[in-house]
Amino acid sequence: MKITIIGAGNVGYHLALALQQNKHQILQIFSRNENRFEVFPDTLAAKGVTSWAKIHLESDLYIIAVSDQAIAEVSEKLKQIGVKGIVVHTSGATSMETLQQHQRYGIFYPLQSFSQSKAVDWKSVPFCIDGNEEAIKNELYTLAQNLSPITHLINDQQRQALHVAAVFVNNFTNHLLSLGEEICRDFEVPFNILQPLIRETFEKVQLVSPKNAQTGPALRGDKPTIQKHLDLLQNFPDKQVLYRLISKSIAKGKNS
Ligand SMILES: NC(=O)c1ccc[n+]([C@@H]2O[C@H](COP(=O)([O-])OP(=O)(O)OC[C@H]3O[C@@H](n4cnc5c(N)ncnc54)[C@H](OP(=O)(O)O)[C@@H]3O)[C@@H](O)[C@H]2O)c1
Question: Which residues sit with their C-beta closer than 6 Å to ligand 1?
Fold first, then answer.
């Protein structure tokens, strides 16, 4: 497949490498900023372009991998220059209909956290695929399967719900770990004493539902312990607020 990638950030960079490795021809990678191409390895045959006027029109697929807020604007640019291939974006939170000015469009969303500096194990990255026609869904599904066996057809609302769930399981969880680290620092205990518990937390939910894995004072309704914890956090009102809110949610979840 001939592919053009718009955006040379975390996702654009890794997709370019992976798709080329799977024998696709990356014709061009667009970025507004020439410096972005400096980190690209020499093995990447794609040409970096910084001008919309230089975008070739013969690609079968245009992958928009830019910041969510810029997807509509970039989609419009591709329409103006007259691309005919399938146009997709890689965002979990943006509706597929943002691309509806194109005749053939869809979604190519890799559900993982990417950083340019960290290699990607594509075989373990789930792909969420959608398209405005059955044939496009099939084409994108096949392309995603070249990279990963974990490929799903997911509609717009489901994908956006998955993105919300991903914020809970990844971003919020990581933030809570970070608050735990701060508490350890404030009370001068080494955070790494908690590492086995952190590992166990994530290993357990591979085997049982998180709801069934829940433990702790909030689940037990242990009010004296909860009060002791809140007293200990008396100088950290933001942490007290979160502690109360999450404890309430755990207690409520027990009966739902
Ligand atoms: N990173 C992740 O973990 C991840 C995972 C799954 C999906 N996604 C999705 O993939 C997409 C790209 O994310 P990313 O992490 O690769 O972002 P990123 O590293 O921040 O890169 C964003 C790219 O968008 C370009 N851009 C921003 N505004 C633009 C505009 N108005 N016109 C043209 N280009 C513009 C930037 O170009 P300049 O260099 O010129 O600023 C940059 O190359 C997003 O939709 C994101 O939601 C990200």
Answer: 7-12, 31-33, 36, 65-68, 70, 73-74, 90-92, 110, 113-114
- Residues 137, 129: contact at Cβ < 8 Å? yes
From ligand 1's centre to the CA of 175, what distance in Å?
22
CA-proximal residue: ligand 1, atom 47 (nearest)? 91
Contacts of 40 (CB under 8 A, 6+ apart): 8, 13, 16, 29, 46, 48
Segment 56-85 mean pLDDT: 97
Distance CA 173, CA 171 (A): 6
For residues 208 and 42, the model is more confident at 208
Enumerate the β-bridge partners of residue 61. Answer: 3, 86
In sequence order, the β-bridge partners of residue 153 are 129
Rounded to 5°, the CA angle 157-122-155 comes to: 15
Which atom of ligand 1 sits closest to the CA of residue 73? 31
User: What's the CA dihedral at 34, 40, 44, 49 to 10 degrees?
Assistant: -10
Would the pTM of this model clear 0.85, i.e. be above it? yes
Q: What distance in angstroms lies between residue 12's CA and the mean position of ligand 1's atoms?
A: 8
